[in-house]
Amino acid sequence: MKAIIKRELSAYFRSPIGYVFCAVYLFFSALYFRAVLIDMRSSQFPQIYSGMLNINLLILPVLTMRLFSEERSMKTDQILITAPVSIIQLVMGKFLSAMCIYGGCTLFTLVYALVFSLFAKPGWALITGNIVGALLFGAAFIALGMFISSLTASQVVAAIGTFFLSTIFVLLDVLPVLIKNKTVLAVIDWVSFVGRYTPFTEGLLDFSSIVFFLSVTAMFIFFTVQSIERRR
Question: What is the pTM of this model?
Fold first, then answer.
């Protein structure tokens, strides 16, 4: 699996994708940090991460679109599938390579916290909660994007499909305004990505939210494995 991770990371930075993703992520996170630095209140620090959720909806599909679609379009998928590694190792290797890039960018925001600490108390519990939440949120959408990528040979279709489905998951939080049925509202509240993410913005490592995001991630990884198995 290490070889797959190295191969995928190398592929990301042999093309513009890795550089573009990192540049866009760091640019917008720096803009949000600038706003926090001007305000100089630690309670505003979570705005960096909550603001980046919207940016992630746009850039994570770009990060995940090539994971399997590129292999299919270049006709190298069968070579990879028949390699002496299990499908789960293949899928996890690709997933972890994308997580390395996303996670690296997310953890880089700790630099902002260190800079902020020179002028005011940053509130490390709050920052820790937001970073953990951002990593879990991103992992779920990376797994979703990887699954969509396994279904098509077109990277454009994979990116659009991932963006569309990710947006639906996020917009579920708007439905309670339109729906009054208590049962439906309870279901929406349980699967709401934004609702599940909210405790992290308050510095709380909510166990049910952690389990939710890990379960969604595991579910889409499982779906990806099944999708690849069918083509083996």
Answer: 0.90
